[in-house]
Write a structure and sequence with these properties.
heterodimer; A: alpha+beta; four-stranded antiparallel sheet; B: alpha+beta; 3 domains; five-stranded antiparallel sheet
Chain lengths: 318, 646
């Protein structure tokens, strides 16, 4: 650890805050003048010089009042953070290359609102601003760029405020133990051919893709591919969209296998291809399984299944 | 500069900035050149229009052009960009133009900082109580603007203003401490620009008919006096300004150079007084005749005018003494007597002839003076602020034709008559009289009390005061100008009003103003030393003061923090009554653990203190009903149960 980082660690008492809600105390709030504050100080110095030179009694009073204002502004910037409760929320997984959001629940048990709370995670360029009403709650999601698949820990987050006067910035470092699952970035490639499986009659005639058997009204879950656009167009959009229905034949079952991806490709690429297949298969409404070296997920479908597959891919050891 | 959402200016923050800019620049319109006000108004209107239509702000070139025009105008008007008036004009220009450049929050912060700076410039022109209050309000508005800028659109107008008021209120203790203890430096730090003290009125060092009459139209205060003893009679209060000895037929001027120090022989005990003189940019102190011994920082001219080394450019307080009855230079230098007999040749032949006829009848100077005074009182002379114009032979015209004049006409004519009759005489200007404020006991002397009188030299008695105005209008000297002037003369209302509740109100107001001037504005390095020695720090240097300031400000900061951060826990009434019940239990030696629920506590009490249990069971039931029952805050039962708890 470099000396500066070590100094910062000691100065700002950097350590993990765990998963419990935390309350900002004076030990972890820091305060410094901002650039606007320095400009203000320079203006005050010039004003004081003018007041002395022209012997302006009220000029002195004005300068001193503004000094007092800056000092009280400092206390109030501190107050804007002091006693704020922060509880970590639950993260929604995202794909690598997207932005992960770490939700924090801020609660304010003070009689005054806390405005202009600025949150910035690590070295992120983007920050988010929120406010908490008096005796109110507010949920704010801290954005972090998701670069790599796997678990993404919330980096040390700086909660800063310049409210009310902008002459001082008060800040605190938050390090709640929060992590967000980052799915691998999917690579769109054609799906492997489906394998017919020896399913029994249960599935016969259940909305398969073999023989056209008629139309039914489209449900939100239906893939757009199955919409009978020509048939629907005849009604000139007056009626709900229709979906083609197929009967007969075994429902196709996809086995998304590590072995089906090109051997020559890098492991990360193969994972990306598999992730792309999972999405495509889910899109098709197919029943699919995933086979990885040392891991296998039985065929299935639906949101939870998709998540299990992507999670396995995300956490697959490189 | 990244344009993150927090850094861009939201649409409804701009009106705040307009209001702040207006509040800080508008009062300057009273003393700015008209073209500048017009330019600033036009820029304001343009910026407002662009905001209203939500249009793009002008680019760099139009702004640069406007800056060039305004700078050129200021240069042309003031011949400089620096100094007081030009500097203020430039600040106003910058403030207006910055409104055309409001893009980010940083621009807005610059506007507010500029606004704070502009507040200071108003004190160049006035430091009165209303100005102070008005600027306090403007400062609160600026602070509210800052709060609104950083609070974003979520903040309400009322809440923002209230918050700004709270911050200002909390800043005031710091201001008071710093005002009293911040090491004061006597200004100026460097040479003041030429225009630093322009536009203040007062007695001038020469007298042309009309210029004292102009002063008489002003109810401005010239100086205030507090006598250590009783206030002397009004007709003894002659405050001496410059003595004018040289006459060119139109204007009286003082004799330059330094003469012999005056000799005063006191005939009455000396009286002490303290005078607070408003700045008049001249050196004379306007001391009461005849001034006693003066401090080393003052000088007494050969004509008995007390002067200071430097012109009085700010309000100053002097401790002085005076003798009301005195003999002044009984053995005057012959050169001075000759000087005070000189008259411009070929002027006022009729007056000369009259004077010479008097002198040939009776050459005694005192009787000659009496003759002249009798002329003024017996003949048809009028005392007026609106005398007719006089021609080339001013004294002849006045004495024989118009016969209407103000004190300067009478003084001038009298001295001319005396000199023509061979009596050394000269004009003295200054103030006469003054009005005691019954509220605070200060005698207030106004510009309208400006006066001119005469002095003649009598063998054995020296220079003797003769006030020819008193011969025409005794009331002027005995009761002041308001009594002396007939109705219809254009005197200011303040001077004219007499014995009426408005006047007592005005006395009060002036007493408040005087206290403000004496104790607030007059707080200078010397007063600070006095205060510190009274506080037991007689030789405090800036280091001690800085230490004291740091300690007091630190304590204040703690107090403000405690006020700000302290949060009284908000208990609902049922919980408050429950706490009361627990305190009762504690008296009966039953302790309550913080994690115990009411029912668990009840269970324990039933087990350990069966005697208490029945009463406490009622309390618990009522409490649970009040706290969690279907009728919220049903407190009647709880109160009743609590009352039955031993």
């Amino acid at each position: 650890m470099s000396p500066i980082a070590e100094l910062q660690r000691r100065l700002f008492r950097w350590r993990s805050d765990g998963t419990a809600p935390l309350r900002l105390s004076q030990r972890r709030i820091f305060i410094l003048p901002t650039r606007a504050g320095l400009l203000f100080a320079a203006a005050l110095l010039a004003m004081l010089t003018g007041a002395i030179n022209y012997n302006l009694a009220l000029g002195h009073a004005l300068v001193f009042l503004l000094v007092g204002l800056a000092l009280t502004g400092m206390v109030h910037a501190f107050r804007n953070l002091h006693g704020l409760r922060i509880a970590p929320g639950r993260c929604v997984p995202v794909f690598a290359g997207e932005v992960a959001y770490f939700p924090l629940h801020l609660s304010n048990d003070r009689n005054a609102p806390r405005l202009a709370l600025d949150l910035r995670a690590g070295d992120e360029s983007r920050s988010v601003t929120t406010a908490v009403a008096a005796h109110g709650l507010s949920e704010i999601a801290v954005p972090v760029a998701a670069v790599r698949r796997g678990w993404l820990d919330l980096p040390r987050t700086r909660l800063a405020t310049r409210y009310p006067l902008g002459l001082f910035v008060a800040w605190s470092y938050l390090q709640p133990a929060m992590r967000c699952l980052i799915y691998p970035q999917p690579l769109a490639t054609p799906l492997p051919p489906p394998q017919a499986t020896n399913r029994t009659g249960d599935h016969q005639g259940e909305g398969g893709q073999e023989d056209f058997s008629g139309f039914r009204e489209r449900q939100p879950a239906d893939s757009p591919r199955h919409v009978a656009w020509k048939a629907s167009a005849r009604d000139a959009g007056q009626r709900p969209l229709l979906v083609k229905q197929f009967a007969g034949g075994a429902q196709s079952e996809l086995q998304l296998d590590w072995a089906l991806t090109p051997d020559a490709a890098a492991p990360e690429t193969r994972i990306a291809i598999l992730a792309g297949w999972v999405l495509a298969a889910e899109e098709e409404g197919a029943c699919f399984g995933l086979r990885l070296p040392g891991d296998e997920i039985a065929p299935g479908s639906g949101e939870a299944h998709r998540h299990r597959c992507l999670e396995a891919l995300a956490l697959f050891p490189a | 500069m990244s344009t993150r959402p927090a850094e861009t200016l939201d649409h409804w923050a701009t009106p705040w900035l307009f209001a702040a800019a207006l509040a800080t620049t508008l009062p300057h319109a009273a003393h700015q050149p008209v073209w500048l006000s017009v330019l600033a108004t036009a820029v304001f209107a343009w910026a407002g229009w662009l905001w209203w239509r939500n249009e793009r702000l002008p680019g760099r070139w139009p702004l640069a052009l406007l800056v060039a025009i305004a700078t050129g105008g200021v240069l042309f008007e003031f011949r400089t960009l620096f100094g007081r008036d030009a500097g203020v004009a430039m600040l106003v220009v910058f403030m207006a133009l910055k409104l055309l450049e409001l893009r980010s929050r940083r621009d807005a912060t610059v506007v507010v900082t500029l606004g704070y700076f502009l507040l200071l410039t108003h004190y160049f022109y006035s430091q009165s109580i209303p100005t102070g209050l008005w600027l306090l309000a403007a400062m609160t508005l600026l602070t509210a603007t800052l709060i609104r800028l950083h609070g974003g659109p979520a903040s309400t107008v009322g809440g923002t203003l209230r918050y700004a008021g709270l911050l200002t209120l909390q800043a005031i203790p710091f201001m008071l401490v710093l005002y009293l203890l911040f090491p004061r430096v006597a200004g100026p730090l460097w040479g003041l620009p030429q225009d630093a003290h322009s536009g203040r009125s007062g007695l001038s060092d020469q007298m042309t008919p009309g210029n004292i009459a102009n002063l008489a139209l002003s109810s401005e205060i010239a100086f205030r006096v507090r006598f250590a003893g009783p206030v002397p009679q009004r007709d003894k209060l002659y405050w001496r300004g410059p003595v004018l000895e040289n006459y060119d037929g139109l204007t009286w001027r003082p004799q330059g150079g330094r003469g012999r120090p005056p000799q005063i022989e006191a005939l009455s005990p000396s009286i002490a007084y303290e005078s607070t003189v408003e700045p008049h940019q001249q050196r004379w102190l306007l001391a009461l005749d005849a001034p006693g011994a003066l401090g080393p920082e003052f000088a007494l001219s050969s004509t008995l005018t007390a002067t200071s080394r430097e012109p009085l450019s700010q309000r100053q307080r002097f401790a002085l003494t005076a003798t009301l009855d005195f003999r002044f230079n009984p053995d005057e230098e012959p050169a001075a007597l000759r000087r005070n007999l000189a008259l411009p040749p070929d002027r006022n032949p009729r007056t000369r002839a009259l004077a010479e006829s008097w002198q040939s009848a009776d050459a005694d100077p005192a009787r000659l003076a009496q003759k002249a005074l009798t002329l003024f009182s017996a003949e048809n002379f009028f005392y007026t602020l609106q005398p007719p114009l006089l021609g080339e032979q001013a004294v002849d015209d006045f004495l024989f034709d118009t016969r209407r004049g103000f004190c300067e006409h009478y003084a001038s004519a009298f001295v001319f008559l005396m000199r023509a009759a061979g009596v050394p005489a000269r004009v003295v200007t200054g103030y006469q009289g003054g009005e005691a404020n019954p509220v605070d006991g200060f005698v207030v002397v106004r510009q309208s009390d400006a006066h001119a009188w005469a002095e003649i030299w009598l063998a054995g008695r020296g220079w003797t005061r003769v006030d020819p105005t008193a011969a025409v209008s005794p009331a002027r000297v005995e009761s002041g100008i308001a009594a002396a002037m007939p109705a219809g003369e254009p005197l200011p209302a303040l001077i004219r009003l007499r014995s009426d509740w408005v006047r007592t109100l005005l006395f009060r107001w002036e007493a408040v103003n005087n206290a403000w001037n004496q104790y607030v504005l007059g707080y200078n390095p010397q007063r600070q030393r006095e205060l510190l020695s009274r506080l037991g720090l007689p030789d405090a240097d800036w280091r001690k003061l800085a230490a004291a300031l740091a300690i007091i400000c630190g304590a204040l900061l703690l107090a403000v923090s405690a006020w700000t951060l302290h949060q009284r826990p908000r208990l609902d009434p049922a919980a408050r009554l429950w706490q009361k019940a627990l305190r009762r239990l504690a008296r009966s030696k039953v302790n309550y653990a913080p994690w115990e629920t009411p029912l668990a506590l009840l269970e324990r009490i039933e087990r350990e203190h069966p005697a208490l249990a029945p009463a406490f069971r009622e309390v618990v039931a009522a409490y649970l009903q009040a706290r969690y029952g279907s009728i919220p805050d049903d407190l009647k039962n709880l109160r009743g149960a609590l009352a039955r708890l031993p």
